[in-house]
Design brief:
554 residues; Rossmann fold; Cytidine Deaminase, domain 2; six-stranded mixed β-sheet; 21 strands
């Protein structure tokens, strides 16, 4: 029988009163008991019977609710230190039975009631795994078996399955509204339960295999307006509740974002986070950050002690590329800031247009200022953007490859501390502004597609050479981009995301007037690079490549 017909039959029997011999039955067994008493009481008020066991049954009875114990159905008390409670035929026959006479007869033989609803949430396995002192034994003891099994049986039996306390209200409202769109609603809940069980089992497999088994389970957070090209479709999926993830941004105005809008927002978050962490760890006073990205790499960055100055520097970085980009600030954007973004160095009939803006807060008036025709400027806010620092830097990342492969990498992120005693300072120390600038250049360049050379001066990005196939070309492109944007590169500071294999890269930078470079060491030509810099008055700062290499975005 088709699923739709099966659901239709048992829902009609259960809720319409055609079967006057029984009331609808819910099996409730939860680890997190938040809201469960209220939910169960509402079910009882709607005419439901409750089956439960253990701590859940105790909590419900303490609230004055009548509860049948699972042991009453099976005739068996919990055994094996409570490892076997709901893993009995009476429970799973009640969940898997079809609405047909043969199954009714089989259920009757073992006193298995028809169970219409399962409400289960699981032992917090991932929390147990995340503990610093987690062991195989401790994780095994925190692994729920009965809960996932009930969820799976209920999903296959197409019962009403609740695996998330956030759904209590939805289910109650659905019941009170006479169960509209029954098949779609039940199927959605069953799919959610299957997904939760899959993620739970994956966490166990990942831990016990010591990382030899890996994967991710995502829940759709939004549909994109289109993919990388307009003829493609795309969607954003969430795998966790990280407050800095793209899905945590609240849309203020504009149409649904495109695939590229979301990748740009994610890249901005990575770069602004690295800047914020680097400034904080060095104790620099500049705390306002404004940055803009275009096709995956930042083209404008400004840091300052005031929001207006940060925005000014962001736009002045590359006034041409800022147009049509996506911007992010770590401060509230009000009407005056939005007006400045739109109007600074523009004509009255040619205001600056952005594809997107994200900030910890965006006022309604600011959102209106940023609007474009057909909602092309997407404006987002997320208070967590004001709280980024070292602890919010990414420590695990994934990269999808073609044909079903993906990469995983992890490690403690490196952040440049300008007073690190391990730094080899070829020509001595720097003044405070130079230290701020070299730290900023590092933060930008280490979150730009490699190979990268980054030029900075006075808290502002001047130019970058990103994704170049040789380091000397990266230096040439960085200088060219800075000069095309009208910047005098004399006195600029440069960051290289790895060592210079030859002295040709420093030669390009020195000719452009660069006097300070931070790079890694590790080339067989390190000594000749140092000799060139020494003889040309370039203060080369280095740390070993294995310590500070800034490759990113491959």
């Amino acid at each position: 029988m088709a699923v739709a017909k099966r659901i239709e039959r048992w829902m009609a029997s259960t809720f319409s009163g055609e079967d006057s011999m029984r009331k609808p039955t819910a099996l409730i067994s939860v680890f997190d008991k938040t809201g469960i008493v209220e939910f169960a009481r509402d079910l009882v008020d709607l005419g439901w019977d409750i089956i439960s066991s253990g701590g859940t049954a105790k909590a419900l009875r303490a609230a004055g609710l009548e509860v049948r114990d699972v042991a009453e159905l099976s005739g068996l008390a919990a055994i094996l230190d409570h490892r076997v409670v709901t893993l009995v035929p009476q429970v799973h026959a009640g969940l898997l039975a079809l609405d047909k006479p043969e199954h009714d007869a089989d259920r009757a033989k073992i006193n298995a009631p028809w169970i219409d609803m399962v409400c289960v949430n699981l032992y917090p396995l991932e929390a147990a795994i995340a503990k610093p002192d987690a062991t195989t034994a401790s994780v095994i003891e925190s692994t729920d078996i009965g809960g996932p099994t009930m969820l799976s049986s209920a999903a296959k039996g197409r019962r009403v399955v609740i695996c998330d306390p956030a759904d209590y209200g939805r289910v109650l409202a659905w019941l009170k509204e006479d169960r509209p769109n029954t098949e779609a609603f039940v199927t959605e809940l069953c799919a959610k339960a299957d997904g939760m069980v899959a993620g739970y089992r994956l966490a166990s497999a990942r831990f016990h295999s010591d990382g030899a088994i890996e994967g991710m389970i995502g829940t759709k957070a939004m549909d994109c307006k289109y993919g990388e090209a307009p003829y493609m479709t795309a969607a954003l999926f969430r795998t966790n509740d990280n407050p800095l993830a793209v899905h945590s941004m609240t849309s203020i105005t504009g149409t649904a974002p495109s695939y590229i809008n979301l990748t740009d927002l994610d890249r901005l978050r990575v770069t602004v986070n690295k800047i914020a962490a680097t400034l904080a760890i060095n104790g620099f006073p500049e705390r306002f950050i404004a940055s803009v990205v275009k096709h995956g790499n930042v083209c404008g960055v400004g840091i300052a002690t005031t929001p207006g100055e940060a925005i000014t520097k962001m736009i002045d970085s590359d006034i041409q590329s800022v147009h049509g980009g996506v911007a992010m600030c770590n401060f509230l954007v009000g009407e005056s800031e939005a007006e400045f973004i739109r109007n600074y160095k523009t004509s009255s009939d040619n205001k600056r247009m952005l594809d997107g803006l994200a900030a910890p807060g965006v006022t309604e008036a600011a959102g209106q200022v940023m609007e474009r025709k057909r909602g092309k400027c997407r404006v987002f806010e997320n208070p967590a953007l004001a709280r980024m620092g070292f602890e919010s830097l990414d420590r695990v990342s994934y990269r999808a490859l073609s044909k079903g492969n993906f990469l995983r990498q992890e490690g403690e992120p490196f952040v440049l501390e300008v007073n690190d005693p391990r730094i080899n300072r070829l020509l001595g120390d720097l003044d405070l502004q130079q230290k701020v600038d070299i730290a900023l250049a590092f933060a930008i360049g280490s979150t730009a597609d490699s190979n990268t050379i980054t030029l900075v001066r006075d808290g502002m990005l001047l130019g970058q050479g990103v994704r170049q196939t040789s380091r000397v070309r990266a230096a040439m492109v960085a200088v060219m981009n800075a000069q095309l944007s009208g910047h005098n590169t004399h006195g600029a500071l440069a960051y290289s995301d790895s060592f210079f294999p030859f002295q040709d890269g420093p030669e390009v930078l020195a000719r452009a007037g660069v006097k300070v470079i931070f790079a890694s060491s590790g080339s067989i030509n390190d000594e000749s690079v140092r000799d060139f810099c020494r003889s040309n008055g370039v203060n080369l700062w280095t740390l070993p490549d294995k310590v500070c290499r800034g490759f990113f975005g491959h």
